[in-house]
């Protein structure tokens, strides 16, 4: 009689999650994981050390963007997952109110300033409206570089062309 085929060793699985992936500087997150067909787990990146095969832990006082890596091993191999947490920075911009239109006529009142920004030059995926009586604004954004341009909208609803672009860091 032929020998029965041995059962294949099951591959390990891992579910790894974070309760918030965008926090204020100094904030906390909870990391939670569960694995199967594993005998050990090891943390690296924004945390370290040996971890149980299932569990959760709170990471406090996160100041910079962090990547948390968890690797679990079992007889059937290993499995790795990574999670990133971004930290909000602030970016202050200020401007001078325009006094005349492109054609030289006086501006008859600004209703709104529009801040256009994004990760790439001349490719703005977010617009923030600011009241026309303001001349500065603070954006709370994940730390990094942003391309920013502005428009002004007058009380008749006419929007100006985009301003010159600036590049600023959210810190």
Record the SSE blueprint.
Blueprint: E1 13-18, E2 22-24, E3 27-36, E4 40-45, E5 49-51, E6 54-62, E7 66-74, E8 77-94, E9 110-118, E10 126-131, E11 136-142, E12 144-154, E13 166-170
Largest sheet: 6 strands, mixed
- Number of helices, counting only DSSP H or I runs of 4 residues or more: 0
Class by SSE composition: mainly beta
Tell me the overall shape: elongated
The span between the termini is: 72 Å
Number of strands: 13
Helix-strand pattern, N to C?
Answer: EEEEEEEEEEEEE
Helix content: under 10%
Q: Which oligomeric state applies?
A: single chain
Fraction in beta strands: over 45%
> What is the mean pLDDT?
94
Unreliable spans are: none
Radius of gyration: 26 Å
What does this structure look like?
The protein has 171 residues and is mainly beta. The protein is built from no helices and 13 strands. Strands 2, 4, 5, 7, 8 and 11 form a six-stranded mixed beta sheet that branches. The model has no long low-confidence stretch (mean pLDDT 94).
